[in-house]
Amino acid sequence: MKNQIIETTEKFVQVELGEDATGHDWFHVDRVRRNALHICKEEMTGDPFIIEMAALLHDIPDEKLNDSAAAGMAKLALFFQTIILPEEVKNHITEIIESISYKGGRKTELETVEAKIVQDADRLDAIGAIGIARAFAYGGKKGQPIYDPSINVREEMTVEEYRKGKSTSIHHFYEKLLKLKDLLNTNTAKKLAESRQQMMALFLEQFYQEWDGQDL
Fold it and tell me: Within the chain, what is the greatest distance between any pair of CA atoms?
């Protein structure tokens, strides 16, 4: 029964996000799912089914990928009508999805270990080599420049400013990506984040050398 629900969910997500070009495609979702199940196994805690379902569905209602936050949540609710799950399980999955977003660095207290694991899994995919690639894919799709030294890094932001304020893909490293390692919940995720953090630091160092012509 659970395996069938997972398969149905996989197919739904593949259809919804298969053509995405912002770094929120099916391959991202699958990596988050695998990260989450790995963390669950290593930490020996949490409900694997809840974790897998929340990981698979975590980007479906994302307001970045929908006309509005309400439209995204309606899409998730409609999908839940197509599968047989107890209401408390659907509610738990929904609560996880609603609580794990970065939203300009606003700290949200996560209620369950499952939410902490899925959030860590999603944040791991936002850093490292893949995180770098995703940052530029998303920035390009949004029409942001790669870099502009005249723009200041934003320290404190409202959700609206985070979503729509003027920034660049390089600034995104300082406004979000480099902060994620210290915001992780589990020891497993923190260990995995070490080499990914180093990768981003090396990339930025090389970027500025080439930008300034120091490597000529």
Answer: 63
All structural domains of the chain, each given as residue ranges with its CATH number in brackets, are 2-211 (1.10.3210.50)
Q: What is the pLDDT of residues 111-122, one digit of tens each?
A: 899 999 999 999
- pTM: predicted TM-score of the whole model, two decimal places: 0.94
Beta carbons of 37 and 76 less than 8 angstroms apart: no
Distance CA 1, CA 62 (A): 27
Between CA 129 and CA 194 the distance in angstroms is 12
Residue 48 tokens read as 């694997």
Among 72, 90, 88, 67, residue whose Cα is nearest residue 5: 90
CB-CB contact of 139 with 168 (8 Å) = yes
Q: Encode pLDDT of 83-117 as tens digits.
A: 999 999 999 999 999 999 876 555 678 989 999 99
If phi > 0 it is left, if psi is from -120 to 50 it is alpha, else beta; for residue 37 that is: alpha
